[in-house]
């Protein structure tokens, strides 16, 4: 096993009606003015935003609002938020939504407290030193951004989707009421479940001798999400299933599933980021569309690990050798994706790739041959191109 640092400073307030505590939670930080950041009209229509405003009013906290966050959150809105916060002297950001809203809030927090262009942090030109304090009211179980150090933003100039990881952006608190996820469309719920699983699987597939305990956490988490994803397909208002998935989303991306590993592979995420940037596809669906092709391409570098996954997670019988068992596991995972109406190819994602687009995706994903991705097998620009070809 590898040495590791496990850091989880976020206070979690979990359960029914917990959004009513927002005023009290925010007041603990002695802020003068809050930016309430959110996405579409769903938080308005559901009455959630009104309940949050009422809680802030009751606590005597001043606030302004900025909506309009979309999936694959845009840099242009981040810039707007930075300017608004500076003008209004905002000193706390409350993100009301899912991963896209939280990631946008983190980027705004970076931009307010650091000099220069916030996009530099996502281009890895420099590291942020500070971030405005962030609070979260979670409405979508998926990204795990409510407890992670991660933020992913899409730059419309070139449609580049890039991430920045830094502990200073970790949320101070996360309010998690599973009831708030019950109105999500079935497709969005399924996408969220895939995202949660993939955050665990990216860490699980690595190149080190793993901790048995961490493996056990990871394997059980994935099985739990799979079980409850199927329940929610048939019974979307099942509170217990919503609660299991919501908590799994946070644990999948707060560092616990990576303890003792080398950090994991993350190639599937890098492959999807370029698809998301170019075609604005749902993140979880994009991950499902490329994962099988990635897995088949790299499986021979660590067949015993894929075989363990096949047996312990997908519950397949051991084959003649590790490679055959691994292949059965990949097929079983793709069958699961289909069972919750997720794609297993880019075509099923609703995108018909041209040769020119595949070349462009490979160029962008490899940073024009300046980087490799993954750790199970180091993937250069040619490898990336072949995976996109196989996944098309």
UniProtKB/TrEMBL annotation:
One Gene Ontology cellular component annotation held by this UniProt entry: cytosol
SUPFAM superfamilies: Dehydroquinate synthase-like
InterPro entries named among the record's database cross-references: ADH_Fe/GldA, ADH_Fe_C, ADH_Fe_CS, BDH-like
Keywords, sorted A to Z: Oxidoreductase
GO MF, one example: alcohol dehydrogenase (NADP+) activity
Protein name, entry field: Iron-containing alcohol dehydrogenase
PROSITE patterns tied to this protein: ADH_IRON_2
Species: Mediterraneibacter hominis
Domain (Fe-containing alcohol dehydrogenase-like C-terminal): residue spans on this chain: 189-391
Record flagged with keyword Oxidoreductase: yes
């Amino acid at each position: 096993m590898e040495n590791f640092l496990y850091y989880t400073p976020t206070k979690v307030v979990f359960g029914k009606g917990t959004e009513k505590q927002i005023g009290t939670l925010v007041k603990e930080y002695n802020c003068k003015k809050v930016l309430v950041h959110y996405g579409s009209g769903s938080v308005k229509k559901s009455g959630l935003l009104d309940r949050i405003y009422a809680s802030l009013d009751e606590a005597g906290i001043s606030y302004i609002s900025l909506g309009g966050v979309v999936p694959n959150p845009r840099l242009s809105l981040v810039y707007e938020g930075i300017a608004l916060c500076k003008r209004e002297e905002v000193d706390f950001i409350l993100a009301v939504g899912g991963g896209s809203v939280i990631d946008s809030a983190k980027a705004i927090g970076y931009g307010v407290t650091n000099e220069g262009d916030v996009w530099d942090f996502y281009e890895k030109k420099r590291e942020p030193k500070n971030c405005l304090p962030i609070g979260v009211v979670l409405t979508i179980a998926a990204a795990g951004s409510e407890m992670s150090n991660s933020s992913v933003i899409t730059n419309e100039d070139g449609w580049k989707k890039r991430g920045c990881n830094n502990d200073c952006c970790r949320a101070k608190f996360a309010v998690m009421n599973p009831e708030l996820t019950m109105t999500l469309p079935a497709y969005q719920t399924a996408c969220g479940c895939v995202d949660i699983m993939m955050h665990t699987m990216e860490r699980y597939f690595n190149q080190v001798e793993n901790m048995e305990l961490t493996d056990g956490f990871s394997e059980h988490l994935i099985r739990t999400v799979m079980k409850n994803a199927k329940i929610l397909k048939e019974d979307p208002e099942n509170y217990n299933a919503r609660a299991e998935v919501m908590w799994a989303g946070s644990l999948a991306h707060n560092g616990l599933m990576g303890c003792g590993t080398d950090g994991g592979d993350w190639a599937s995420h890098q492959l999807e980021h370029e698809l998301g940037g170019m075609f604005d596809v749902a993140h979880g669906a994009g991950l499902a569309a490329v994962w099988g092709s990635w897995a088949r391409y790299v499986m021979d570098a660590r067949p015993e690990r894929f075989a363990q996954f096949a047996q312990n997670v997908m519950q397949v019988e051991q084959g003649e050798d590790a490679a055959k068992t691994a292949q059965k596991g990949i097929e079983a995972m793709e069958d699961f994706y289909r069972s919750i109406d997720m794609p297993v190819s880019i075509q099923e994602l609703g995108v018909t790739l041209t040769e020119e687009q595949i070349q462009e995706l490979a160029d962008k994903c490899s940073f024009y041959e300046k980087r490799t991705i993954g750790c199970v097998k180091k993937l250069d620009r040619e490898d990336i191109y072949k995976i996109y070809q196989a996944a098309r």
